[in-house]
Amino acid sequence: MVWWMMMKAAAAAMVMIGYNGWHISPHTTAKFLNIRIFDQPCNSSNIEEWEKPFVHYPKPETFSREECVCNPVRYFAIFSMQRSGSGWFETLLNSHINVSSNGEIFGKRERRASVSAITQTLDRVYNLDWLSSASKNECNAAVGFKWMLNQGVMEHHEGIAEYFKQNGVHAIFLFRRNLLRRIISVLANSYDKSNKPLNGTHKSHVHSSVEANVLAKYKPKINATTLIAELKHVDNRATRAIDYFKSTRHIVVYYEDVVGNRTKLKEVQDFLRLPYRELTSRQVKIHSGHLSKQVQNWDEIQKVLKGTQYESFLHLDYQR
């Protein structure tokens, strides 16, 4: 609009010159107007009023969004715990052409040393200036990362929650219902780090049934004495995390629900207001089948959990 009005003014000036009988000779030194086309605000008329705090138009410093400049972007973070399916879940999200989830960016201690360090990192991610393998050539509709609860979340929850509210960040909580399965996965992964049965290489995730079968051969022995206390600790940690962020826009997703019912992925896409896509992952589950086949001391574990609030973990099963 600014450009059009200035062009009209210039045209009117030329008409006035002709009207007064002035002439421009070939030798006239012309002085051109320095016309600047100002950034026009993006049209958000099709976005509902309640959504507007959660819709963003980032202006990255490392590249130009060009034709994507007016494509709205939602910010998100996946809160989870190690060995809860977050890696698999993130690959599903990243299979969406308009989503970039950048992995565990707070694995490095210096990035989570203080609220200030955390917010500086978040600013880079949400401004699309965090370059990773998840970066997309297509227009982003959602950008985020996964954040383990033991990576500064619990210690700095007040500052993080405030940042989320001020900047319209969506929180996705991903936990396991069966915490016993998680313990088995944690112990098996710890063994793999030390012993590296796959040709001397540690792999937290695999992409073939052959690799999965190799890793699944190891059966950990669970400490039955501390099992109940450990289950309570993990359960309480998840509950507290959700409570810390109850004033933010959030959703709670359970790994088993995603495995058993892929419509849960549609709910997540709806939560982020994404155009619906079928999401896929190349990851292959390592520990499948009944739990009795995955631990050394199954009989002991059964005795400890029977009659407790965690007895259902002995029977709660699923397939992937």
- Examine the secondary-structure arrangement and name the CATH architecture: 3-Layer(aba) Sandwich
Strand content bin: 5-15%
Q: How would you describe the oligomerization state of the chains in this entry?
A: single chain
- Topology-level CATH name: Rossmann fold
Our count of helices gives 11
Biggest β-sheet: strands ordered side by side in the sheet = 2-3-1-4-5
Write structural notes for this entry.
The chain has 11 helices and 5 strands. The chain has one domain (71-314): Rossmann fold (3-Layer(aba) Sandwich), CATH 3.40.50. By secondary structure, it is α/β, with parallel strands linked by helices. The longest helix has 18 residues, at 2-19. The protein has a 5-stranded parallel beta sheet with strand order 2-3-1-4-5, sandwiched between helices. This is Sulfotransferase.
Highlighted features:
alpha/beta, P-loop_NTPase, 5 strands, Sulfotransferase, Nod_factor_sulfotransferase, Rossmann fold, globular
Concise description?
This protein is of the alpha/beta class. It has helices spanning 2-19, 86-94, 115-126, 149-153, 157-167, 179-195, 209-216, 227-244, 255-260, 263-271, 298-305, and strands at residues 74-80, 99-101, 142-148, 169-175, 250-254. Helix 3 (115-126) links the parallel strand 2 (99-101) and strand 3 (142-148).
